[in-house]
Amino acid sequence: MKKLEITEENLQKAHEDGCSDVKKALENMFPEVFESLKKFNLSKLKLREDISGGFIFTCESSKEAGFSHEMFIKIRSGGKYDNKGFYLNDDYNWRIEEEKESLCLIPTKK
User: Fold this and answer.
1) Distance CA 28, CA 4 (A)
2) pTM score, two decimals?
3) Could you read off the pLDDT tens digit of each residue along the chain, which spans 110 residues?
């Protein structure tokens, strides 16, 4: 029997080129390969010059918006969601609301 080498790159290419049945079969057989395609690399988000510590906004602009510091929201660093999620500071109440078929993250003061 001939051995075949299956690489992540080949699986992704087959998924990209395949019909919906092929895509579903590959996703079921190799979920870890396709799970990574659904996630974002938030470390690439930069709204301020120096994004050290995962801070997205400057202290000055955060205060002008009504927050006490730039740590109200930042890119998660460390743990399971490192560079895949946001840290929401617990100094504020956070809720998600739907408006016109879009979700909005709403912070309010405690």
Assistant:
1) 19
2) 0.60
3) 888 888 888 887 887 887 888 888 888 888 887 776 677 777 767 655 665 667 888 888 899 999 998 889 988 888 888 888 999 999 999 999 999 989 999 999 99
- Round to whole Å and give the CA distance between 57 and 51: 8
Domain ranges of the chain: 8-38, 42-109
CA distance 71 to 53: 10
DSSP 76: -
Measure CA 106 to chain center. Answer: 18
Return d(Cα 104, Cα 69) in angstroms, integer: 21
Closest alpha carbon to 109 in 89, 92, 84, 85? 92
- Degrees to nearest 5, angle at CA 94 with 91 and 96: 170
